[in-house]
Design brief:
The chain is an alpha/beta fold. It has two domains: 142 residues, 2-Layer Sandwich (Nucleotidyltransferase, domain 5); 122 residues, Nucleotidyltransferase, domain 5 (2-Layer Sandwich), CATH 3.30.420. It is built from nine helices and eleven strands. Helix 2 links the parallel strand 4 and strand 5. Helix 4 runs antiparallel to helix 7, helix 5 packs across helix 7 and helix 6 packs antiparallel against helix 7.
């Protein structure tokens, strides 16, 4: 009989549930509904939306087999002060289900789940067993991480990233100006592909840190001057891509020529993928928020406990 784990992830963007059997898996997720012109939801609204949405997304999964454990993303990062109320929806669902089934329940951070899902979907599960660099590029996070194995999961040290506006915020704010639906990543990527100018901005680096507020300011100036929509889209995305590339090169000078894993919604961008040919990218559906990484880490945790 197939042995499976179930993972839940209820981020501020997407309600997700996944099933994993030690080799193959499937994730079911749906973006939270955001009114046109708005840039996300308040935590209370996101939490309520997740509670309503969970039954719907679980209907799309195959739970046949022996369920050996349940897991959930409980917070954004694995630090003690990391907290976000919307994750309570998935945690509570996981805890109740585990009690009913009489199986263990495990908690991981949203960031750990992103790394596990990215490594698995890229066919590089070996990264969970070795040091590597990882970019987490999303609406709430733009961080370069130094990742080390820790038990069945990983520990992440923030070594670089943005000091203000995240890559995802810049992209969504650009999309908002251009009248695109939130989140704007996919539509902005498609729009940018029609660019013929190719202009972008290079923020000054402070070690491995940088600021994207200057890019946002210049992007708004382009909009006010009635620049072509595709040029505005390309400007925002390409400015982020070039900055990520330069910071990565500088990090390798310090930490060595380590593999670089890319996860988070912004990491699904086609311009970034073409610009970093040696990068290790999650498959697009496992680059955005999902519960697959949590299900994978839950399976590893259950197997480790059984061995002990």
């Amino acid at each position: 009989m197939r042995r499976i784990t179930i993972g839940f992830d209820t981020s501020n963007y997407t309600t997700s549930c996944a099933v994993y059997d030690g080799a193959e898996g499937c994730n079911s997720g749906r973006l939270l509904d955001v009114l046109p012109g708005e840039l996300g939801l308040r935590q209370s609204a996101a939490l309520f939306s997740h509670v309503k949405r969970l039954p719907e997304i679980t209907d799309k999964l195959d739970f046949s087999g022996e369920i050996i454990a349940v897991g959930a993303s409980s917070k954004p990062r694995e630090t003690e002060d990391s907290y976000m109320p919307c994750f309570l929806a998935g945690v509570c669902q996981a805890q109740v289900l585990a009690k009913v089934l009489g199986v263990p329940c495990y908690a991981f951070s949203h960031q750990q789940g992103h790394i596990a899902a990215a490594a698995w979907s890229a066919g590089r599960m070996d990264l969970l067993e070795r040091e590597h660099l990882a970019w987490h590029l999303s609406g709430g996070t733009t961080e370069l991480l130094y990742v080390r194995p820790k038990g069945v999961a990983v520990e992440c040290e923030i070594i670089g990233g943005t000091a203000d506006v995240s890559a995802g915020q810049l992209i969504d704010r650009t999309g908002q100006l251009l009248g695109l639906q939130f989140p704007s990543g996919k539509e902005l990527d498609k729009l940018a592909s029609a660019s013929k100018n190719g202009a972008f901005y290079k923020p000054k680096l402070d070690g491995l840190r940088f600021s994207l507020s200057g890019v946002e300011h210049k992007m708004k100036q382009m909009f006010e001057k009635n620049a072509a929509r595709e040029e505005i889209a390309y400007f925002s995305i390409a400015s982020v891509v070039d900055t990520v590339r330069r910071v990565t090169e500088r990090a390798k000078d310090t930490y060595g020529d380590l593999p670089v894993l890319y996860s988070g919604g912004v990491a699904s961008n086609s311009i970034l993928r073409k610009s970093v040919p040696d990068g290790i990218f999650a498959q697009p559906q496992y680059s955005t928020d999902n519960a697959m990484g949590t299900a994978i880490l839950t399976y590893r945790a259950a197997g480790n406990d059984n061995e002990q």
